[in-house]
Amino acid sequence: MARPLELAYNWRTPVGFATIGLIICVVVLARSRTTGWLGAIAGVVALWAAFMAVVWARTRALIEIDGEQLRVRRFWHIYLLDGRKVASVREYLTASGPSYKVRLTDDDRIYHVPSALLQKGHSTFFGWLLSNAPDAVLDKGSRKTLDSLRTRGLIE
């Protein structure tokens, strides 16, 4: 059975600091009882909740290889991609680094591979791609990343 890749970042530290900050802000606002303190608390809690939603969505990233199949999840849905059907790969930049959009030969949908959010995400994805879809069309950014991985000895 294949194992999913580990997350490439520590999500616990920002969550801990944000929660401690939330508690401090709520206590200070509640003790001050100045005009509009309830609204201010509601605003701080809403900001904290939005931050927690972003962190949670990022922790949902998944790449798992099982033979010719690549299982990916960016946010909500898990998709199973067949390596023999990959037509093209296009790189797009995220705050964490490059990730990839995959198009299959029999499907007009674009599948996102969140390689930047996972440890060994790039080398795992390109290793799978080269072994299962060597004829896939790569854009300029993908070719550059592939060359960089080969230069560093992360893939053959």
If you had to describe this structure to a student in words, what would you say it looks like?
The protein has 156 residues and is an alpha+beta fold. It has 2 domains: 48 residues; 90 residues, Roll (PH-domain like), CATH 2.30.29. 44% of the residues lie in helices and 24% in strands. The chain contains 4 helices and 7 strands. Strands 6-5-4-7 form a 4-stranded mixed β-sheet. Helix 1 packs antiparallel against helix 2. The chain starts with 11 loop residues before the first helix and ends in a 5-residue tail after the last helix.
Major sheet strand order? 6-5-4-7
* CATH class wording of the largest domain: Mainly Beta
Query: How far do the termini sit from each other?
Result: 24 Å
* Topology-level CATH name of the largest domain: PH-domain like
Order of helices and strands: HHEEEEEEHEH
Strand content: 15-25%
Task: Return the average pLDDT rounded to an integer.
Answer: 88
Rg over alpha carbons: 20 Å
Helix content: 40-55%
Please tally the β strands and state the result: 7
Largest sheet: 4 strands, mixed
Question: Which structural class matches the secondary elements?
Answer: alpha+beta
Overall 3D shape = elongated
